[in-house]
Amino acid sequence: MALTLRALAAQPGLGLSVVAGESGLDRPIGWVHPTELTDPQAFLEGGELLLTTGLALDDATSAAYVRRLVDAGAAGLGFGVGLSHDHVPEPLVETADEVGLPVLEVPRKTPFIALTRAVSRAVAADEYAATVRIGRAQQELTRTAVGRSGVAGVVRRLARLVDGWVVLFDAAGRVREASSATARAHGEELDVKSLRAGTRVVALGEQEVVLQTLHTRGALAVGTGEPLDAPGRHIVNTAVSLLSLALEQDRAQHGALSRLRTGLLDLMAAGEEALALDVLRTAQGAPDPPWTVLAVAGSPAARNTVYDRLEPVAAQVFFAHSDGFLVAVTDEPERVLSATVDGCHVGIGDTAAFPDALRQARQAAEAARAQGTPLLRYADHAGRGLLNLLDPGAAQAFSADLLAPLQGREELEESLRCWLENHGHWDRAATRLGVHRHTLRNRMTKAAELLGKDLDSPGTRAELWLALQVRP
Q1: CA angle, 30 as apex, 24 and 35 as ends, to 5°?
Q2: What is the edge-to-edge ordering of all strands in the sheet holding 345-348?
Q3: Is residue 419 a contact partner of residue 440, using CB atoms and an 8 Å limit?
Q4: Selected residue with higher pLDDT from 353 and 92
Q5: Does residue 400 or residue 117 have the better pLDDT?
Q6: 36-46 b/e (C-beta count within 10 Å ≥ 16 → b)
Q7: Using alpha carbons only, what angle is made at residue 290 by residues 288 and 293, rounded to the nearest 5 degrees?
Q8: What is the radius of gyration, based on Cα positions, of the chain?
Q9: Whole-angstrom Cα distance, residue 278 to residue 259?
């Protein structure tokens, strides 16, 4: 921790007295600079404790001298007495109190070099402590990065090292990892999509947040109650380098694993299920048959999102990209369905034989996309084989015309639908409708009269079934 003016004034043996600017005594001292110039601004960087005997100062020039030191950003003034002045000039003290510049009276017996040594020792100690802190932090972060916790562990470790919170964003600006639930909430408030390469500092409430792009893709947000000091910034830079390397390795591994999964799916489609399963069980685990085969159609972004969501359950769901689909094989299809997002259309195969189930799932997914429905089973798709051949507008016009006599007679229409679906079986249809079979017979008689159709005719039944299926 940097030596402050208050700590320097309290050091025994120096004999320093505070004569002005007590409110600024907690300022850190960057360095010590002795000079007798009345305008040393050109030689100051800010943060210095300036030492002078006031050789060129008097009551008339003291006030302007103090203001120039404030403009130059000096931390304070050490005024040596017993040479040019027996005490610090009163106008200098008054002006220093007014502008808040600390003034330390240095007795004649205390050489300026003693103050320089004191500050120099403190600066050296701070630099050594900072070097040790940075070195230890780099070791901790490196061990974490190569350990089992990987990227998530680095994020949590960095948060502890800087006494703050940390959020890692992916290339799309979404929160990938967070050091805590609170950090994740903060991350949701930040917009990093427009962040260009480099570093930006923003405010989030009373906290300062450093946003820094990674060397590959994505960004890191580090929030702290106080601005990061120099060691803290070095530690963050180390984490950025390690995270960039780890994410690049993850990306390469992700691509290799994706290609492996696609190759195994091709093996299964070619009838080499046993070989593919042996590899899967060795690599990550595999679901046990009997399987459900699902195909997910949608944009590449939507399919990639589902792919990423399935990663945590890879042992229960085998999934792979293939020919514009994301194919999933599992004995728990609800896991796949719960991972889908808007814009996905899922088809489900309807046979146990894998190659056939895969073909069916893809066909059902294509049909689901064409119909704008999120889920379609192949059995339902196949059952509409004839309907898929008809022009929707013409079919609906045919339906409206044929069923017009039943308009407003929902009871008759529903009874007709159930009776046809049960192939004219009176008892079964009546049971499903919850009515007596004689009631159903009466309804069918009434429907036949209104429609002017013979319900015993197979052609009539086919027309009515078709009309009911496409009814708008």
Answers
A1: 90
A2: 317-322, 325-330, 292-297, 345-348, 375-377
A3: yes
A4: 92
A5: 117
A6: eeeebeeebee
A7: 100
A8: 40
A9: 17
